[in-house]
Amino acid sequence: MEGGGVDHLAEERQKSRFDVDEMKIVWAGSRHAFEVSDRVARLVASDPAFRKDNRNLLSRKELFKNTLRKAAYAWKRIMELRLTEEEAAKLRFFIDEPAYTDLHWGMFVPAIKGQGTEEQQQKWLPLAYKMQIIGCYAQTELGHGSNVQGLETTATFDPQTDEFIINSPTLTSSKWWPGGLGKVSTHAVAYARLIVNGQDHGVHGFIVQLRSLDDHMPLPGITVGDIGMKFGSGAYNTMDNGVLRFDHVRIPRNQMLMRVLQVTREGKVVQSDVPRQLIYGTMVYVRQTIVSDASSALSRAVCIATRYSAVRRQFGSQKGGPETQVIDYKTQQSRLFPLLASAYAFRFVGEWLKWLYTDVTQRLQANDFSTLPEAHACTAGLKSLTTSATADAIEECRKLCGGHGYLTSSGLPELFAVYIPACTYEGDNTVLLLQVARFLMKTVSQLGSGKQPVGSTAYMSRAEHLMQCRCSAQRVEDWLKPDVVLEAFEARALRMSVACAQNLSKFSNPEEGFAELSADLAEAAIAHCQLIVVSKFVEKLQQDIPGQGVKQQLQTLCFVYSLHLLHKHQGDFLSTGCITPKQASLANEQLRSLYSQVRPNAIALVDAFNYTDHYLGSVLGRYDGNVYPTLYEDAWKDPLNDSVVPDGYHEYLRPVLKQQLRNARL
Ligand SMILES: CCCCCCCC/C=C\CCCCCCCCCCCC(=O)SCCNC(=O)CCNC(=O)[C@H](O)C(C)(C)COP(=O)(O)OP(=O)(O)OC[C@H]1O[C@@H](n2cnc3c(N)ncnc32)[C@H](O)[C@@H]1OP(=O)(O)O
Ligand SMILES: Cc1cc2nc3c(=O)[nH]c(=O)nc-3n(C[C@H](O)[C@H](O)[C@H](O)COP(=O)(O)OP(=O)(O)OC[C@H]3O[C@@H](n4cnc5c(N)ncnc54)[C@H](O)[C@@H]3O)c2cc1C
């Protein structure tokens, strides 16, 4: 994307055998999406106000103030340039700095939209849209995060005053973690147990004002602050994750979000025909966005590691010629290319999940709740699968860059530190896999009952065949047949689920059985989610994809993704009898040959992400590959090099040296 200067990767770019510009459009999702993304990326990169190369050097206070400045400036630009919602979302993406605005737009607004009545939406959304109030999502407490039904904050209805009294009865009921809460939010959607006439009606959302709109001071009864520094310097410390306690704070009755359940003036609790799981709807929305974000974080790390692997040379000089580019080592390819393929795979499954979410939202509006369990299982499972894979991949990319990957200027340490909480927030990844497993066990238990599995479990309707089929691959080329690959993944996923269901049936208490078998259940859930990713990649290839060689590259990546999973999890495939050891070895042979096909296209495949050097934030991942001079120059910019003799020399170094000198003379 960058222009000018010597292009050290030019030769690599000439090797590619496909139309990179068309691939950029496939990656972006459409020509329109590409144009928006490209324009906004350049806007951010060219504006010094969005500089980010000094983040690691700032103290927490400076860092946070700097984030406030950037967020305010971004909002001003959104207004001045009259950016659309799509453009504004891209602006946030390329600014590349976690901020309170993520929670305001990403959770507070969606919570009101999804759980508020029409009237409540009309009252609160205009204020939120104009940022006249700033909100956060205050669910997690010191004592409970995963177990939402275990939250302790109470909202007790007072019929005398027509108010709820929000209270934190214990230390462990303190809200703990919500982003944007610590120092910024004026309001929260706070989750609390609804108590009416002494009866507990479970957890619901309430809009609570936290701070004065005049002087930003906490309102009476509110104790609020930041929970402290998090992993890494810079990184997620731009966010004010907060702690909050309520001391009998009164709010009007109409500030309970009442789409799912209403409390009347008389204190009557009325359940609407909307399922209570809709209270969890904001989490479904965010989990879906997290899957797309995974492909962004992964592609960024892979772009850095791929470009650097083409620049870096070690060993293998022939007759004084250049040494071998490390990207030509088969071990480097077998570690790197599956990650490149995963970035594309997650992109396409993210697109599909967005479609699924839009579809379920439209159905919910028409009071059709039938696809909610499927949406929950898919968003929970794919969020878990893609974030775990991406977190591991960023660390692998760091190692792929050798020693220089450990430098902050490689961009990888900060990316890792910012990214890894995605495995925990919005649902711990193991807890979410167990949700998928419950869904699978339910589906398996209904097989043969006449109820046909649909959506992501539709393959289970062919249970009879999949339980006994034998893989037909006899030659290396057979592993390039989508049907052969898909059937192997379907059979493996089904057989693992059925094995769990059979083992579960041996327990008289199903909950006890579920707990005992939970590690196997989580593995069955992973197999199911991997099948979804593979099948959505295969479906993508059935579309009309223009551009010379583009579809062929995607086919290669699809098989790299699938066959590397098959190789990595061959224990599953073999133990369930889905493939034979000979077939596993043929698949691995095919995989090796695919790596050779990816090799000449690798640089162009990462160029297709269309990332600016500003967004990448990496000396190793520079578009022009001019790594060494930049690394060298950057080192001298470190504050430690401001003086030749370090501060502290006279107090702490010189006396030691002099002491040694004296000892030596003795
Ligand atoms: C103009 C300017 C524009 C500017 C644009 C700016 C653009 C910015 C836009 C977007 C940015 C987005 C960025 C977002 C950034 C986000 C940063 C991350 C912040 C992180 C936030 C958080 O972490 S919030 C807290 C999240 N917490 C959790 O995830 C908790 C995890 N636990 C749970 O989800 C659940 O409690 C559980 C799933 C574990 C349930 O357990 P349990 O078995 O106890 O459940 P229940 O008894 O309550 O219910 C069981 C029943 O319900 C089904 N179910 C559970 N969950 C759901 C669900 N979500 N949906 C539907 N159904 C659900 C479950 O399957 C059971 O069903 P049965 O049929 O009974 O089996
Ligand atoms: C950076 C960050 C930002 C966040 N932002 C917000 C926010 O804006 N708003 C908000 O409300 N919350 C937020 N959170 C909180 C987050 O949603 C929770 O931390 C998350 O849901 C995990 O819950 P927990 O901390 O209770 O983990 P725990 O459930 O205590 O997990 C601890 C361990 O126990 C295991 N475990 C737990 N239950 C089970 C089980 N049933 N079976 C098997 N294993 C289990 C887990 O796998 C994990 O290994 C944020 C967290 C982070 C790290």
Describe, in plain words, how this protein is organized in 3D.
The protein is α+β, with helices and mostly antiparallel strands. The chain folds into 2 domains: 133-272, Butyryl-CoA Dehydrogenase, subunit A, domain 2 (Beta Barrel), CATH 2.40.110; 277-625, Butyryl-CoA Dehydrogenase, subunit A, domain 3 (Up-down Bundle). 53% of the residues lie in helices and 9% in strands. It is built from 23 helices and 11 strands. The protein has helices at 10-15, 20-28, 31-45, 60-80, 85-95, 100-115, 118-129, 281-311, 330-365, 372-400, 412-419, 429-445, 463-468, 482-504, 510-516, 518-541, 550-568, 570-575, 581-598, 602-607, 613-616, 627-636, 649-665; strands at 135-138, 154-158, 163-167, 175-176, 187-196, 199-209, 222-226, 242-246, 249-252, 261-263, 269-271. The strands form 3 sheets. Strands 1, 2, 3, 5, 6 and 9 form a 6-stranded mixed β-sheet that branches. A hairpin with a 4-residue loop joins strand 2 and strand 3 (163-167). It is globular. The termini are far apart.
